[in-house]
Every structure is written in structure tokens, then in C-alpha cells.
Here is the input.
Amino acid sequence: MSIMIVGLTGGIGSGKSAAAELFAAQGIELVDTDLLAREVVEAGSPALLAIAEHFGDDLLDSAGNLDRARLRALVFADPEKKVWLEALLHPLIRALMMSRLAACTGPYCLLVSPLLLETDQAEAVDRVLVIDVSKETQLARTLQRDGSSLETIEAIIEAQIARPDRLARADDMISNESDLASLADAVLAQHKQYCVMSKAAQMSKPNE
Here is the structure.
């Protein structure tokens, strides 16, 4: 990549999306793998047709769109189904991700991914930024945010990389246990650091 790529990650309910929006407010381009995952299973797409054929048409709503909550509950209750789904979607998401990253401009680009460290997506980034919260905060925020059951949320947390391992692989970390104003201050400070790092990296490159 011609510019610095920062991978932003964190467990479910950590506030990755809020942090990403704050970086975007500073003019930083985002490549969000959650959005890419939705893109590859749009109504009528080959991937969605494969999912419906494998799991059944009841995963589609009346408009032919994927019922993501039902699919999530299904695959996190059955490891084999999760493996099958990931084998289908991860290569499609990665190909789209690499294309979007290559097109990024600006001082640096942010790759937003909940599975950055669980997949080979981490190979595409220069630095890893973790948005960190406790498991108790994860559960409370996710239960408040969406309609998933406690069992499904706990299964998602267990499927993600363990918190100590995630933190061990972080180049940078922002704690999001407080309010949005505190998160905004931390993001702004980190953004300024990344701009300095990016400028230094560009200056150190040999003239082509």
C-alpha cells in the first residue's frame, strides 16, 4: 500500500463504530469489513444464493434480503455451520477489502474490522489499534444495542480473540469505558500521532 494502513479492532460492543466515525470526522477514509460483509451478500448475489441453498430460504426476508440476526444465531450455535460460512465469505470480503484499501488516499487509511486479528486481514495493516472494554461492558452495551440473546452474545465473545491476546497484539490502544467525549479526545490524540507517523514514513521513502 502507498499510504499507512491502521487496523481498528475490538470485541463486540467495544465501540469500534463510534471510534471509526470520530476518525472519519477528521477526514480519514474508512474501509469497514462489516459493510463489505453486507455488500457481498446483497439480494441476488451469488454468495446469498449459496447461503440460502445451504441453510434454507427461511434466512431470507420477503424482499430477498438476508436475515442477519437469524443467521448469526444459527452459526454461533453450530461451529460447523460457522466454518462453512466463513469459508464462503472471508475470501470475498478480503478481495473487496484489498481493492478498497488500494484506492485510499489521505495521510492514512483505517481498516475497521472485528475479526482483524482472527483472520489474515491483519497482514494488510501497518499498525493495530484496539478499542478496549471489559467483558461486562461488552455484554451490557450489546444487550442494550440489539436484540440478540445473552447466549448468542457470549458465543460471539468466546469466538473472538481473547482480550489479553488482542491487547498483546495491539500497537496502540484506546480504552472506551467512559463517555463519548472521552473517546473523542482519545481518538483526536491518536489521529494526530498517526498523521505524524505517516508523514515521517513518507519522508523516509526513497524517491521513485
The longest strand covers residues 4-9. The two ends are 15 Å apart (CA to CA).
